[in-house]
Amino acid sequence: MQMRKTLLAASALILLLATAVHAQDEESTPGAKIIERSKADALLLLPQAGSGGSDKVPLEHDEQKQTEFAIDVEGCEKLKGHVSVPVGLDKSGKYGMVLALNGSGYEGVEDLQSAARLSSGRDPLIVVGLTYASIREVEDGFSVIEPLVENDKLMEALTWLVKKAIADNPVDPDRVFLYGDSGAAADLALKLWEDDPDSFPFRGCMYDGPMFGFKVEKAPPVPTVFLVTDWDLEIFAESDFKDADPAIIANKLMARGVPCEYHTYKVNFFAGPPERPIQIHRAAINRLGGPGAEEYPPEEGRYLGAQVDADKVPFEEGSDPRINEIVLLAKNEQWKQAWKRGNAILDDKSIKSKDKRDVKSFMKDFEKYCKDELERLNKSIQSSIEHDFWPNTWHHERMKAMREAFKEESWFQKKDYATTLETLKTYGPAKRDEARRVRMLEAVKLELDGKRDEAKKIYNELVKQKTDDGGVSLWPHAAAYRLEWWRAID
């Protein structure tokens, strides 16, 4: 008996020592804590539901103020640092930070203002940037962009900039992100990981466009988001630049266990600054330690049911520009913004009472319509629940939008609308959808473990369920999208 106790004690000691050695080995691995955090972050970022953002939803962002400062690094006197901070930011809190290296390095504040659109009231961000190049006219109509310092000095300046920004601002050091084009951004990430992986500052790296010279085998193993335009795809298809194709790079990184998203979008050079890429990168930032990504309407291929006359918004534009603003928002299914705008006009003391009369009358009609519409939508969705079938997507999306608009109103709270919407998360089709999500997640985990063949089988299995439950389920579409950018990695 005593010998058995001795053997058990010895076994326990061996197990304890083995565990300690294993833990010590993990701790001694360069960047071990960063790698472990990235493994957890994979479950926040993935599975990817498709190419992100929405052309139906305008980008909302907060107001920011930009400040310029000198770079206190020897040999970098010509460079200029920039920081953009949300106006009215409560400095007692801690906020995410983005190092933005978008653009060509010479537009400075303009590039920073573009990147600052990543920030929103839901997730305020501090954004920093650097002017590190200049533009020189060679002859009429022809100019060249020239770096102000050599690349090693640029990397030194950027490292200094990140440390200064974190020290000088209310930054959450666990939510620092790198955002930009390939080139300087990817070079900086690689250098910081090679120099000191344990101190690598970025929670995630977000890149736009072709990735020339990207070193997959040396890339930091943190969540990475790639985004390309339809123009980029044509370049990859018709040139020898296939090594710069982010789809190939993302596949190779995923096989290494690095969580990646890959997005494509159509570019419109006549529509002003693009909003889709900002939506896509913001969603990743929101997921990684933030409040979670904003919800966007489904893509057209996932709508169930057709719009009928009863679904049309009955208001028309007229002679009052203020009312027209509200009508346009409603017709774009932006019910929260419409309600907020109408009430803001009525509360605006700079507008005379007589000039508000038409708006006041309109808002009464607007509220009555919304109350009646919510009753109609509620009946439609409850009927779908009763028959264990997905609801009409137009009705579901409008009811969710109206809930966001009126959830603080007492008349809304007295109704069972919120309960109806919550039921949609747990009834039959929702349970089947959850099973597909779990299966999709299983495929992602297999892929990150390097078991690509097994993962691909599951993706193909899910694609076959695309038309089940009215074709509304997200995950078969997500699996199909993953296979669209599946590339051989040999």
Written description of the protein model:
Helix 9 runs antiparallel to helix 10, helix 11 packs across helix 14 and helix 15 packs antiparallel against helix 16. The chain is about 50% helix and about 15% strand. The chain is globular, with a radius of gyration of 26 Å. Strand 7, helix 5 and strand 8 form a beta-alpha-beta unit. Strands 1-2-4-3-7-8-9-10 form an 8-stranded mixed sheet, sandwiched between helices. Strands 5-6 form a two-stranded antiparallel ribbon. The chain contains 17 helices and 10 strands.
Primary descriptors:
eight-stranded mixed β-sheet; 10 strands; alpha/beta; single chain; 17 helices; disordered N terminus; 490 residues; two-stranded antiparallel sheet; globular
Q: What's the layout of helices and strands?
A:
Blueprint (H helix, E strand, L loop, with lengths): L1 H27 L3 H14 L18 E7 L9 E7 L8 E7 L7 H7 L9 E7 L1 E7 L2 E6 L3 H18 L2 E11 L2 H12 L8 E5 L15 E6 H9 L7 H10 L4 E6 L10 H12 L33 H11 L3 H13 L5 H34 L6 H14 L3 H4 L3 H7 L4 H21 L3 H12 L10 H11 L6
Parallel strand pairs: 3-4, 3-7, 7-8, 8-9, 9-10
Antiparallel strand pairs: 1-2, 2-4, 5-6
Q: Numbering strands along the chain, what is their spatial order in the largest sheet?
A: 1-2-4-3-7-8-9-10
Which structural class is indicated by helix and strand composition? alpha/beta
**What is the first-to-last residue Cα distance?**
58 Å
Helix and strand pattern: HHEEEHEEEHEHEEHHEHHHHHHHHHH
Query: Would you report the number of β strands?
Result: 10
Total helices: the number is 17
Give the oligomeric state of the chains in this entry, treating copies of one chain as homo and distinct chains as hetero: single chain
User: What about the largest sheet?
Assistant: 8 strands, mixed
Q: Give the helix level as a range of percent.
A: 40-55%
Average predicted confidence as pLDDT: 89
How big a fraction of the residues is strand? 5-15%
